């Protein structure tokens, strides 16, 4: 009896990890249909891909009857792009949570969330606090499987330049030999490796809440 093929949805498909995740899902024969929520067309044509053009104000209606198995949430803003903290919360927390609740209500059982190393809802750092709250909110939705990915410095080609990431890309190769033992989690990681690990764990069907730091992500990629 052939394995049942999955249906996935990617939130944040135009971003660094989201784009890699989308490409891997389209190439993976374990997935028969892949949806991507975007504000504007991605410019990709693939027989398995269906784009859903929506934003926070219209996404509820767009997802009202949509049934998927796996949600891959890789959406996120930056302080430079979204200096207003209220808008930052809307993009990083309220929007993905709204999508997650809609999909879960329609039968989605698995979520893979791109978070951040150091995510902590009680952190004094705004970014880490926000990521921690997103993690907590996703766990509260009721998914059978929750996979939280906490990568360190992300490596890959972005549309926009991020100063500290650019600096890290220069420095980390020079000092990478220092990151041994527990410090391995501080090494930079390719966005494609994060995407690959997410797709791999989603198809394994393990239930419960799972947290993945950089080194484990690399091993699962």
TrEMBL record:
InterPro entries: Epimerase_deHydtase, NAD(P)-bd_dom_sf. SUPFAM superfamilies: NAD(P)-binding Rossmann-fold domains. GO terms for cellular component: membrane. Gene3D superfamilies: NAD(P)-binding Rossmann-like Domain. Keywords: Membrane. The keyword Zinc-finger does not apply. Its main location: membrane. It is found in: Membrane. Residues 8-117 form the NAD-dependent epimerase/dehydratase domain. It holds the Pfam family Epimerase. Transmembrane segments: none annotated. This is Uncharacterized protein YbjT (DUF2867 family). It comes from Sphingobacterium alimentarium.
């Amino acid at each position: 009896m052939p394995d049942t093929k999955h249906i996935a949805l990617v939130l944040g498909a135009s971003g660094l990890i989201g784009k890699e995740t989308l490409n891997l899902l389209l190439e993976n024969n374990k997935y028969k249909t892949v949806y991507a929520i975007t504000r504007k067309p991605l410019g990709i044509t693939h027989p398995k891909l269906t784009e859903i053009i929506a934003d926070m104000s219209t996404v509820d209606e767009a997802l009202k009857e949509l049934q998927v198995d796996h949600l891959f949430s890789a959406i996120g803003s930056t302080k430079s792009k979204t200096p207003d903290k209220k808008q930052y919360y809307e993009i990083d927390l309220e929007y993905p949570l709204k999508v997650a609740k809609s999909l879960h209500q329609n039968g989605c059982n698995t979520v893979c969330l791109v978070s951040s190393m150091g995510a902590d809802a009680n952190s004094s750092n705004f970014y880490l606090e926000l990521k921690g709250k997103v993690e907590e909110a996703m766990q509260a939705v009721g998914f059978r499987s929750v996979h939280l990915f906490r990568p360190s410095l992300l490596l890959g080609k972005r549309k926009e330049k991020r100063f500290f990431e650019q600096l890290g890309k220069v420095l980390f190769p020079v000092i990478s030999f220092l990151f041994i033992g527990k410090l391995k989690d501080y090494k930079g990681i390719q966005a494609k490796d994060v995407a690959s690990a997410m797709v791999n764990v989603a198809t394994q069907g393990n239930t419960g809440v799972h947290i993945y730091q950089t080194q484990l992500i690399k091993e699962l990629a």
